[in-house]
Amino acid sequence: MIFPENFVWGAATASYQIEGAVKEDGRGQSIWDTFSHTPGNVAGDDTGDVACDHYHRYRDDVALMRELRLAAYRFSIAWPRVQPDGSGPVNPRGIAFYDRLVDELLAAGITPYVTLYHWDLPQALEERGGWADRDTAHRFADYAEAVHARLADRVTNWATLNEPWVAAYLGYGNGVHAPGRRDAASALRSAHHLLLGHGLAARRLRPGSVMLVVNSSPVLTPAQVNDPAAVPGEADAAAVDRIHALLTRQFLDPAVYGTYPEEVLAAAERNGGTGHICDGDLDTIKAPIDLIGVNYYNPCVVEAGPGLPADAAWPGSEDVRFATADAPTTAMGWPIVPDGLSRLLVRLSQDYPQVGLMVTENGAAFDDVVENGRVHDADRVAYLDGHLREVWRAVEAGADLRGYLVWSLLDNFEWAEGYRRRFGIVHVDYATQNRTLKDSALWYSDVIARNGL
Ligand code: FCB
Q1: Does the keyword DNA repair apply (predicted)?
Q2: Residue 333, phi-psi category: left (phi > 0), alpha (psi -120 to 50), beta (remainder)
């Protein structure tokens, strides 16, 4: 299984999950600082205060990337380092960190992929309403433009948002993520304002290649998980279509076609109305993009659930039952269904044929142990191997797939799960900050060297 020439191999991280140094060089507070410092929100009451200390160790981390032969590194910029209060002049010491990081990457022959928003909203903006407030979209576009002005001489690959579904619905819907609000109407408004911010920012990131990164999954009935040919009955099919609209089409239809699925508008009608969707917004959101970034971990499994109320993370999901897959699971409890990835990529390439695709995250948490300086994470190797075979199948089936980035380079702060879930191909000992290449890192490096399996 050899991948196309120029297929991009890399790894991904995010600012709050690895950087630490939360008070350094004028960084402002983010909603994740506030949230993680509020007892009970994160497992073990862990915080990102130190994390992987990447802010101080980035040179060594880039050296590891080079050793692993990564061609690309996707990282995110902490908005509160650049604009401590979310607007106004750029903090020179904050942006200087990313200047140094980009230079270090380029010197190592690694192409930077910059994500502008991976969930660390400046707390000052949250206090003015956060993403539920329309103005945040404009603040985001200004911030994006300021970063572009500083880095575009060396960075060409830009992602506006990471996983707007998660930011809106876990942040403002069920409150599992920062800022921890629990209000369906705010979640729906936030989703729209995130999209608006994406559209406004996308127009200010030229010259450059622009991408929107979504958490997408094939939505399947329990029977379809193990039998792609299974045909669901009418009620189950309706549940599948509804959740697909809420998870994926809610973001990609406006971004690519300038339209909202009727399921999203109906959900808004039932939760505070559609007044926040102003004339012209959809035209703004439909800014040309070059790539859709796909973060895939597991399928979404649903069936009809007559009479069930909507789940707090899924306004509009009335009459749907979220089900479990008959499949082995990772340490997150997420089902391992590798061919979900090819099913997803093929569908996206059919539904949005004018836009290229890149797998911007894929990976798994397992309970790794270090033994004599080694980490024998055979389960992670199997997970990655299985999923890469499906990426290859999707390419063979004609999907315009440009690359694959593993989540994650390093073990890191896994949001509400804290440090107890390890996704890295590189192990981090948080007490000493020692890095140890796991077997999966060595295996991945071989895959890259061969451009295939
Ligand atoms: C994704 C996030 C990423 C990481 C993985 C496991 O939803 O984008 O930061 O936490 O899940």
Answers
A1: no
A2: left
The domain segmentation of the chain, as residue ranges, is: 8-450
- Does 163 participate in catalysis according to the annotation? yes
Q: Which of 104, 263, 361, 390 is catalytic?
A: 361
Rounded to the nearest 5 degrees, what angle is found at the Cα of 7, between the Cα atoms of 57 and 368?
A: 45
User: For the segment 204-241, what is each residue's pLDDT rounded down to a tens digit?
Assistant: 999 999 999 999 999 999 999 999 999 999 999 999 99
Q: What is the pTM of this model?
A: 0.98
Q: How far is it, in rounded angstroms, from Cα 291 to Cα 396?
A: 19
Q: Kindly provide the b/e burial profile for residues 277-298, where b requires at least 16 CB atoms within 10 angstroms of the residue's own CB.
A: beeebbebbbbebbbbbbbbbb
Residues with CB under 6 A from ligand 1: 14, 17, 162-163, 166, 215, 295, 361, 407, 414-415, 423
In which residue are the tokens 């060594």 written? 60
For residue 247, the CA-to-ligand 1 centroid distance in Å is 15
What digits encode the pLDDT tens for the residues 272-293?
999 999 999 999 999 999 999 9
Paired tokens of 184: 């369906």
pLDDT in tens, 311-360: 999 999 999 999 999 999 999 999 999 999 999 999 999 999 999 999 99
Where does residue 424 fall: left (phi above 0), alpha (psi -120 to 50 degrees), or beta otherwise?
beta
Q: Is 162 labeled as ligand-binding?
A: yes
- CA 285 to ligand 1 center in whole angstroms: 24
Exposed, middle or buried: residue 258 (CB in 10 Å: 0-12, 13-18, 19+)?
middle
Say what the alpha-carbon torsion angle 62, 202, 416, 300 is, to the nearest 10 degrees. Answer: -110
